[in-house]
């Protein structure tokens, strides 16, 4: 059975459920010469999110139409927003559900300096709440990330590290986390909360990264640390700060960096 038709109207009405309740999903996709990178992983994550929230998945032709067309630059970022659409009484969903698919693309330039020189990150005071049903899903309700990002204004700090209510490292405010221990590379399990990134999925599929738990008190002891996503690529972490700004750990930028090299091959940056 085909899903209901989608609205292509970019003017979001007052009763849109994504606006009112965060009832929807989004994807942020790197376009290279107009072609989406890691597209299969983005579609798979969107499909998982649709299944989780009970929103009909747009047909492939509707999704493809969001990136087809003449590119405005060699590199662009495509943002897709899928909401449950309008209507319903209170939290009750409308019958039938008519999803609304919105998209926008814009030129993009990655930070090569951060690839090469590494970045400073800090621990956040905010703790992510656990909700296994939403774990891994890139839903529209990102208030925890918004509040965490408000904790600092220093432009030299690239990212904030988030832990959950049990003190386990989960992710950065807008990137996934990877670390090396005993010559193996790991990323946090995201079975309780957090966003399962598409670059993370690609690295796991390649067998380059394993999933594990990392308690916050062991975090400064890791051998190497990276933050990464499917748009910015991989940033080596050189400095870890506590939430109060005090220094917790420094790491050198080591070459060669096999995780960065493989990730950038997947993204076409290599």
What does it look like?
There is one protein chain. This protein is of the alpha+beta class and 270 residues long. Helix content is 21%, strand content 31%. The chain contains seven helices and 13 strands. Strands 5, 6, 7, 8, 9, 10, 11, 12 and 13 form a nine-stranded mixed β-sheet that branches. A four-stranded antiparallel β-sheet has the order 2-1-3-4. The longest helix is centred in the first third of the chain and has 15 residues. The protein is globular. The chain starts with 16 loop residues before the first helix and ends with a helix. The N terminus is likely disordered.
* Percentage of residues in strands: 25-35%
Oligomer: single chain
Low-pLDDT ranges: 1-9
Q: Termini, distance in Å?
A: 42 Å
Mean pLDDT over the residues: 94
User: What's the main sheet like?
Assistant: 9 strands, mixed
Number of beta-strand segments = 13
Radius of gyration: 19 Å
Provide the structure class: alpha+beta
The helix count comes to: 7
The shape, in one word, is globular
- Percent in helix: 10-25%
Order of helices and strands: HEEHHEEHEHEEEEHEEEEH
What is this structure, in a nutshell?
This protein is 21% helix and 31% strand. It is α+β, with helices and mostly antiparallel strands.
């Amino acid at each position: 059975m085909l899903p209901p038709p989608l609205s292509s109207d970019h003017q979001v009405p007052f009763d849109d459920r994504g606006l009112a309740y965060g009832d929807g999903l989004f994807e942020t996709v790197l376009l290279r010469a107009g072609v989406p990178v890691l597209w299969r992983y983005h579609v798979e994550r969107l499909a998982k999110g649709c299944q989780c929230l009970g929103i009909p998945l747009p047909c492939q032709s509707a999704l493809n139409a969001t990136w087809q067309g003449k590119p405005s630059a060699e590199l662009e970022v495509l943002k897709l927003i899928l909401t449950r659409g309008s209507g319903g009484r209170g939290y009750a969903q409308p019958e039938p559900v008519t999803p609304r698919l919105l998209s926008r693309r814009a030129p993009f330039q990655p930070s090569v300096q951060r690839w090469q020189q590494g970045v400073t990150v800090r621990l956040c005071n905010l703790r992510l709440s656990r909700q296994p049903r939403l774990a891994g899903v890139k839903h529209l309700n990102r208030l925890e990330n918004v509040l965490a990002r408000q904790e600092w204004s220093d432009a030299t700090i690239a990212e904030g590290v988030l832990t959950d209510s049990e003190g386990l490292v989960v992710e950065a405010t807008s990137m996934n986390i990877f670390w090396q221990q005993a010559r193996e590379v790991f990323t946090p399990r995201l079975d309780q909360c957090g966003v399962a990134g598409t670059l993370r999925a690609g690295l796991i599929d390649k067998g380059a990264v394993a999933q594990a738990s990392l308690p916050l008190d062991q975090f400064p002891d890791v051998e190497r640390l990276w933050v990464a996503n499917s748009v910015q690529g991989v940033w080596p972490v050189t400095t870890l700060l506590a939430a109060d700004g005090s220094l917790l750990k420094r790491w050198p930028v080591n070459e060669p960096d096999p995780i960065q090299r493989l990730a950038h091959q997947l993204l076409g940056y290599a």
